[in-house]
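To close the chapter, one final illustration. This time we ask the reader to focus less on the individual chains and more on the assembly as a whole: which components sit near each other, and how the overall shape emerges from the parts.
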Amino acid sequence: MKISSSTEYAARLMAVLARSQSEASVSAERLSALENIPADYVNQILLKLKRAGLVESRRGQGGGYALARPPQSVTLGQIMRAVEGRVFEDVCEKYESGERDCRHQSRCAISPVWRKLAALVESYLDGVSLEQIMEEKPAACGAAAAGTSGGMQWTTRPH
Amino acid sequence: MKISSSTEYAARLMAVLARSQSEASVSAERLSALENIPADYVNQILLKLKRAGLVESRRGQGGGYALARPPQSVTLGQIMRAVEGRVFEDVCEKYESGERDCRHQSRCAISPVWRKLAALVESYLDGVSLEQIMEEKPAACGAAAAGTSGGMQWTTRPH
DNA sequence: TCTATTCTTGACTATTTTAGTCAACTATGT
DNA sequence: ACATAGTTGACTAAAATAGTCAAGAATAGA
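The assembled structure is written out below.
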């Protein structure tokens, strides 16, 4: 279980755009340089964010991307859905679609657990807004920062 | 984000063993038939569970696998760690290991969020025991069961 | 002891997903 | 018109996952 690089990248790109609201727009190339993400990949991700209505774009000279909505109304859950389609894929989905035979003795006794987990993850990510990320003191990337940081005080908002 | 089939399978195999405590042991072949999982794959998974000390095995005729510990002291978190190595892989791990350049403007402002999420997931899975799964009314596999089920009443135990 | 049973080991292959690339095109400002 | 910059979809490469295989070692029962 992990966060995909698309989601990680999307979150970082959105964070940059949130911090760049004073500027009219930021070009994909500039975002690529700032976040050290392959330019073509940046374009691909931004396009998905645009189609999901999370960012706006302007072509031509001086064009680029900008947040479509205020940072407090954009959540990580929305960002993740924009680039991956869903936050958490239920295991049983593949069985439902007839791909496999779902008959087994423990008849999905565990599936409620996965569903609860999925709900937990979704509600957490839907509770973290871009604004909260902006306010966060950027922690140094590394295990050392995990314990000492003053962050992580966000709570989950049920939906 | 999803649950891998190894973890799903491992959980189901453990559930069967938990329900079969009256029997001395259950063979891999029988487990394979009961849960409709490829026999060789079952062996592979059980071996990991054994190495993690979650199950015991006996060879020869009448041999097979059995729970090494009582169901209430085995959690989904332990099962997942046994087959996958870890529950949640932090995104920044790969950066830490020098694989990539970690310098970017938003200097892991989001990483505390991923860490919090990982902690949430781990503490949830470490709070669900095999015994709880046994008690769960097996829900029919499918979206229909998601809303109506009487399950999902488990709470997270902090660790 | 011989044999069938069943776990053990590690390497191998196939499939799927993820990550990243590319080329051709369209819109816009100067 | 021309340079800048987003748009589109197809393509490839790499990695992770899922599943297979074959040869071996322990054990129970005949």
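The two ends of chain B are 23 Å apart (CA to CA). DSSP finds eight helices and two strands in chain B. With these observations in hand, you are ready for the problems at the end of the chapter.
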